[in-house]
Amino acid sequence: MTCTERRDSILLHALNANDHDALTPAERESIRAHLATGCPTCSAALAEAEAALAQIPLSLPVQTPSPAVRDRLMQRVLATSGATRSRSTQAGTIWRTLTAIAACLVAGLATAYFVSIKPKHEAQIASRDAQINSRTTQLSDRDAKIAQLMSQVTVAQDTLRMLDAENLQMVSLNKADPQPTARGRLIWDRDRDMWHISVFDMKPPAPGRTFELWYITPDQRKIAAGTFDVDAKGNGSIVVTIPKDIGPVAVAAITDEPMGGVAVPTGKVHILAELNKVTN
Amino acid sequence: MTAATEVDRSRIARDTPDDFELMSSIAAGDAQALKGLYDRHAGLVFTVCLRIVRDRTEAEDLLTEIFFELWEKRDRYNAMRGSPVSYLVTLSRSRAIDRKRRKRPIVSGSIETVNAPSAGPTPAEATEAGERGTMVNRCFDRLDEPQRQAIECAFYDGLSHSEVATKLSRPLGTIKTQIRSGLLRLRECLGRFFDSTDVANQGDVKNRAT
């Protein structure tokens, strides 16, 4: 069973995973085993199914619980947090007492030694600390630059390979409301089913968020394709390989999402390309 | 202009980024964030519980248990799996069905008697809930009545297909077809209306005949 074929069965699985009538035992086990592999297509299908089922109760008139429920809940939450803090406080007090006694003994034995050489040691330690911090910062910066360069090299290599392909198409990306000046292009390697997407003049997403690319099929499935960021000039790019089992792709869309990306789109569309009008 | 684009989508409060931020804060141990999430979604969770257990006191008890479980096991939620609302509704349905199965079944009582007058939602909540409810009911209107009954039995009562067939006095094969075809139609319809981005809208407006 392909992931596309599994999508409808996943919907029944989400309704009742233990229903022996909805799916055969083999189908149920196949779905469980496949989801356990972390397949992104099927994980997205499960998230889509649960999201659809979660809307069913919206057809009911909303009922309001009594205000006392909220108070009971918060009292219980705070009581649990308070009990944890109380136990920690008692244990901390005992440890602090023991630590104080030990510190007095050590201080008494070492007083003479530290009075004579302490200032000199402190100066040496401070100097070495400063050197270590400086070197650590330099190393971190270099690591970050190396990672950035490697990423750029990978994208450049992929781009070069794509330009060498025989069956290439270029599609312009159309900006949406949040991006008044954005431009973009999608280079489609038809033979290898790869996209190289470049965007320009994009306003960056809000702090803590990133851009995420989506494959959108003619039947409106939205499959996550990966995340990327733009530089200070608003330029960015991403290279992806279209999964074989999702079928034809009608739209490529980029939204802003929480850092790390999500399985189901939640943010606004910033830029997109309609592909159902692009012919071979 | 299609029905979906007539609605001012910016006023439909689905899982806004704030819900994800609240869940992150809850995971970090912020009790105020839990209170914020409760204020936002207690109505929905309570409605689900009340519909399933059909007893206001039980439903309020469940409401406390569900949000407390959310707090106690706050590292369990995974944003990659779906939105906080999906997580809450899925959790609520599961806990309420479990509670109902442990209790003696309520012999009498219709939805009308269970839905006793309450304090009522705030005006903003009523507007938001009303808009979302309208969209969902439009999707349900696309089902025929037998499909809707079968799905509601399976969803709210947690019944298997054969149990639904027994309850509604229909053949098992008919119930299987009704539930499957009804869910597929709902998924397609709800997916168009409730994508919180313009992703679906872009595709739909361009592809759907107006």
* Share of residues in helices of chain A: 40-55%
Q: How much beta of chain A, percentage-wise?
A: 15-25%
Oligomer: heterodimer
Poorly predicted ranges of chain A (pLDDT <50, ≥5 residues)? none
Largest interface: A-B, 69 and 83 residues
What do the pLDDT scores of chain B average to? 77
Determine the N-to-C terminus distance of chain B. 6 Å
Q: How are the strands of the largest sheet of chain A arranged?
A: 5-4-7-8-1-2-3-6
> So what's the overall shape of chain A?
extended
Order of SSEs of chain A, N→C? HHHHEEEEEEEE
Number of helices of chain B: 11
Mean of pLDDT of chain A: 85
User: What is the overall shape of chain B?
Assistant: globular
Total E-strand runs of chain A? 8
Roughly what fraction of the amino acids of chain B lie in strands? under 5%
Give Rg of chain B in angstroms.
Answer: 18 Å
Which structural class matches the secondary elements of chain B?
mainly alpha
Counted beta strands of chain B: 0
Helix and strand content put the structural class of chain A at alpha+beta
Please state the CA-atom Rg of chain A, rounded to the nearest Å.
29 Å
Write a brief structural summary.
The complex is a heterodimer of chains A (280) and B (210). Helix content of chain A is 49%, strand content 20%.
Task: Name its key features.
heterodimer, A: 280 residues, alpha+beta, 8-stranded antiparallel β-sheet, 4 helices, 49% helix, extended, B: 210 residues, mainly alpha, 11 helices, disordered N terminus
Question: How does this model look, in words?
Answer:
The complex is a heterodimer of chains A (280) and B (210). Chain A is α+β, with helices and mostly antiparallel strands. Chain A has 4 helices and 8 strands. Chain A has an 8-stranded antiparallel β-sheet. In chain A, a hairpin with a 4-residue loop joins β2 and β3. Chain A is extended. Chain B is an all-alpha fold and 210 residues long. Helices cover 71% and strands 0% of the residues of chain B. Chain B has 11 helices and no strands. The longest helix of chain B is centred in the N-terminal third of the chain and has 23 residues, at 31-53. Chain B is globular, with a radius of gyration of 18 Å. Chains A and B meet through α1, α3, α4, β4 and β7 of A and α3, α4, α5, α7 and α8 of B.
